[in-house]
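Worked example 3 (structure in, sequence out).
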């Protein structure tokens, strides 16, 4: 199953750091997200983009995970030559992950 089947996502940025939230549609699926979507799996999924650490924060009462990806935006908005300098499309890319 792909993540978009059980969750939605939002993305934010600050400098060269991308912040992606993954929120279960149904709180019942939170434990599955917590088990399958790890810092290692996210770093591997974004291996072509992320050059630094990936940190995960758990928000069980919201049924959400928050990933902070360091070195994810090609140097940041003012330095990146990427079409998506803010990394807004990264949330959609994460939802394509197979679990």
């Amino acid at each position: 199953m792909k993540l978009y089947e059980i969750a939605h996502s939002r993305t934010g940025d600050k400098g060269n750091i991308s912040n992606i939230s993954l929120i279960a549609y149904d709180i019942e699926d939170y434990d599955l997200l917590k088990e399958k979507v790890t810092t290692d799996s996210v770093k591997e999924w974004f291996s072509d983009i992320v050059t630094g650490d990936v940190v995960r924060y758990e928000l069980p009462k919201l049924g959400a995970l928050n990933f902070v990806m360091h070195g994810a935006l090609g140097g940041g908005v003012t330095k990146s030559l990427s079409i998506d300098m803010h990394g807004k499309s990264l949330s959609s890319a994460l939802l394509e992950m197979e679990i």
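Notes: The chain has three helices and four strands. Residues 30-36 form the longest helix (7 residues).
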